[in-house]
Specification:
single chain; alpha+beta; two-stranded antiparallel ribbon; 4 helices; 50% helix
Amino acid sequence: MSGDSKIGSQVGGVMRAVTVRKIGAGSASATHAAAAMPPATEAEPAARLIGLTRTIADQGPPVDTARVASLRTAIAAGSYRVDAEATARAMLDFHRGSPAC
């Protein structure tokens, strides 16, 4: 058919040839064609991501234990002072450019 063509589709780093048929967007044939195409599987990349997630989770969060100890000591001694300007500046720097703000 004149609307059929072969194109390459990359899924999970693997190139595969697929047939694409141009069909009008509102037709029943378009709905049927979309439903008949099985979803692409990406088992290998998903397995690698799961492994990476486990590795990161096993490492735990990066914590400066010496800094935490010094802050606890300062708070307990009553010598810890909050620098409101530095806190506000850090908050603005963190959220700058964020679409939610």
